[in-house]
Amino acid sequence: MGFRCGIVGLPNVGKSTIFNALTAAGVGAENYPFCTIEPNVGIVEVPDERLDILADLVKTKKKVNTQMEFVDIAGLVKGASKGEGLGNQFLGHIRQVDAIVHVIRCFEDDNVIHVEGSIDPDRDREVITMELILADMETVDKRLKKAQTMTKSGDKTAKIQVAFLEKLLALLDAGKPARHMAVDDEIEEKLIKELCLLTTKPVLYVANVNEDDAISGNEYVRRLEAAAQGENAAVVMISGAIEEEISGLDARERKEFLNSLGMSESGLTRLIKAGYKLLGLQTFFTVGEKETKAWTIPAATKAPGAAGKIHSDFEKGFIRAEVIAYADYVACQTEAKAKEKGLMRVEGKEYVVADGDCMHFRFNV
């Protein structure tokens, strides 16, 4: 699995339409609030041209893309942190994802009702952000009271926790997400992980636009980009209508359709690339005639950790990794030629895997 993204946003911003298009899951996307109550989960293959090229080179029998999981979480509304619109249930679903994809409506359509009555990306972004912050404030406040009680017995760790939680609560009270909180030691790091706060999760904004604005955007998108820049977040512009239209096409038809619109890649591809960057992920490959496969790992993963993605025994009994850089593999056409030219490297336990490495692991259990 690559990573798990929760798709959030106000009702009727196009979340389920985009989810349907990305996952071809066919879940409900109707014109009324709370169409999505239980979260829908969709698994999609991550497109990677490098995998296609490697598979063609070795004429592999089976090609396996890495995967990405999307969770379509029901539309949040103002007051969600207090239970409005089944908010507590929906907020609980957000705790289970690696990153938040916040869909913002950046299109006008009189036939699609906006829950707030008008199109305003700034307001919509702030409504969702504030509900997540308010939910986190409640979580932190409860933990703070518990830590304060523990300090009465002279617990030194509790005193450190109280000081940290007070600073964290002040940060949230100022309207800033918990991911902006500086963590200075192991106690603080452990505590913030245990809290499982909603606003520690990285956020990626999706500007949902009409087909006519899919390339150049519009004023709504520019306003969203300006706001996102202030919090060092990325914005991916997607036309839910276009993505829905191409979801049923084969690769050739999809490419032709996108070219006719002046687009080089789909919204899914742009979203995945932005998601990888957001979470600091990268890909390595295992290449063979029986199977050629892409694997997702965090950047800076060492060779034994990458081996463990394949099987825990590979990591436990790791001896060495035989590595060919992707560019070298393609240039040489075969593993044998790469080895002959001295481009296959033997790496040990301290080797940090590079994006695109083609790897074969030697292990002993």
Structural description of this entry:
Helix 1 (15-23) packs parallel to helix 8 (240-246) and helix 4 (121-151) runs antiparallel to helix 5 (156-173). The chain has a six-stranded mixed β-sheet, with helices on both faces. A three-stranded mixed β-sheet has the order 3-9-8, sandwiched between helices. 36% of the residues are buried. The chain has 365 residues and is an alpha/beta fold. The protein has helices at 15-23, 49-58, 87-94, 121-151, 156-173, 186-195, 219-230, 240-246, 251-260, 267-279, 303-310, 312-316, 326-332, 335-340, and strands spanning 4-8, 40-45, 63-64, 67-72, 99-105, 203-208, 234-238, 281-286, 292-298, 318-324, 345-347, 358-363. The chain starts with a strand and ends with a strand. The protein has 14 helices and twelve strands.
